[in-house]
Amino acid sequence: MSNRNLLIIAVSIALGLGITTRPDLLSNLPQSLQMLFASGISTGTIAALALNICLKEED
Fold it and tell me: How many domains does the chain have?
């Protein structure tokens, strides 16, 4: 497994667990974003997708 993949996994899990343990972090966001990021699973998935797009894979 490459460092890129490990980074994506680690950040996604960290964000998902962070939102699960500290839901008050979302209190300043608009209601629509609060609904989107309220679940740790959705937060982790969105983070993984965004990082997968942003971090280019080495050949």
Answer: 1
